[in-house]
Amino acid sequence: MRKIRAARAARGKTEAKALSSIDRLLFFDRDFNPVENLLGNELPASVKPAASFWEHFAGLDKSALTLAFSSMGESAQPLRVFADPGRPGSRGLTIYRIGDLYAVVRSEEPIDDERATLLHLATHDPLTGLPNRRQFSDDLTDFLRETAGTNETLSLMQLDLDDFKPVNDTLGHAAGDKLLQFAAGRIQDCLAADDRAYRLAGDEFTVISMGSGHPAKAHRLAEALVAAFKKPFTIDGITVFVGTSIGISTAPPDGTSPEQLMKASDLALYAAKKEGRGRASAFDASMLELLEQRELLRRSLRMALAQQEFFVEYQPFAEDGCIVGFEALLRWHHPLLGNIPPVTFIPMAEADGMMPEIGAWVLEQACREAMKWPQNYIVAVNVSAAEFLTSGLTDRISQTLDLVGLPPDRLELEITESVLLERTVNNIDTLNTLNVLGIRISLDDFGTEYSSLSYLKTFPFDTIKIDKYFITDLETDPKSQTIVRCIVNLAHGLDMQVTAEGVETTAQAEWLRNVGCDRLQGYLVSRPLPVEAIGEFISRAETSVRHALP
Description:
- The chain is α/β, with parallel strands linked by helices.
- The protein is about 40% helix and about 25% strand.
- The chain has three domains: about 20-105, Beta-Lactamase (2-Layer Sandwich), CATH 3.30.450; about 125-285, Reverse transcriptase/Diguanylate cyclase domain (Alpha-Beta Plaits, 2-Layer Sandwich), CATH 3.30.70.270; about 305-550, TIM Barrel (Alpha-Beta Barrel).
- It has an eight-stranded mixed beta barrel, surrounded by four helices.
- Helix 16 (about 480-495) links the parallel strand 21 (about 465) and strand 22.
- It is elongated, with a radius of gyration of 34 Å.
């Protein structure tokens, strides 16, 4: 607690420095007020302060010194303070704890300028003037050591600036540096006497908050910081908005070591960003559980294909009351955790670059299974954005069809709108090549992501799939009815078919048939089927589906 930002405190014999001359010896009480009597005897005028400690030494950092004083026990070594370690000729103070008093010896000996400057540079960020990562690590270790075994608590906050990179990229690094300086000042303006701010790197800051009332105190400080960053910054006459996301951890509940606290606050920061940024989030044990589960899944996912833990289910879709094909749906059965939802593991596989390999396996499995179906049945296979944007996709698909022997017109590839965010030449070439090969292309989940009518004009689609979001309340919601009717008319006007997903009732099916929807897919037709059940389903499909659908 004695390493302070503008007033560097040094402990131990290695940093003790003999005073060659003493200007004055002054006494102050525990509240830093002047002391006139010592043990009932009036002090000599030479050691009697004329004002409070802070008035005598106005240039010192009050908040940092208050933290240092609070940690001084009667047996503690004296505290050596330099008023300004970066200024040549700065004088020093040596402070002793004597019972309920502080004895202050002011030295006339100048500090070694070069040593003090190097020390300051080694422990402070030159851009913002805040203590740096090295100083933060030392301080956090010291603070935790001093609070161990006591009733004292402290909170650690990690702060990331939201949308800092766009400012840095568009206005230049000089503007980015000014923004970091302004941000550091705004953080310091929110701090109390027993709070300390640090800059770790880039746009990453931390705050160590001491004193009583944690974690509530830390939450109030975090709210104040978030509110402060909602106000705009002005850089070279340009107004910019940069918020902050904050993760909070508290010792000892969330950890008693620097590593534990940093991990906890980092998880809380991740949660704050995931919830929408520009907010603070406190660590919760469930965050660690989720992280551990996520890492377990990530490690297991890398072995799942080799361990044959993936399998494919098939959900049929119908046209004019008849089954015309199946959509292949990837599934994962974890040996310990059971079935893992695709919404959980597919983003992981995409992030780790595994989807091209997994997607190739799904495509081959689906094509081989489709070879067992009637020749007029098609198989729909999802292609993730990560897989679609991988070079060589069309060659791999073509090779798979040749290997299995499935005609290209029996394969329908489903892509989502996220693939089309970049209207690159490569994207257009890929879709056109697939179209030339005779492979059908379906735009999946239409209307729920980044819908743009220009997609329908630019890219060659055969089918548009209406997301179940619009189908669920189709019977009662006029807005959903209007949207679905418009999509059907639009698709037909562009010579495309329409598939409605999530059809569960005969009333929905009847409404969709009346507006001209071509295909229906959902629980009304059938739930996804294991591969073993497809043969029997196909054998009774004609009568059962005609009976279920209007």
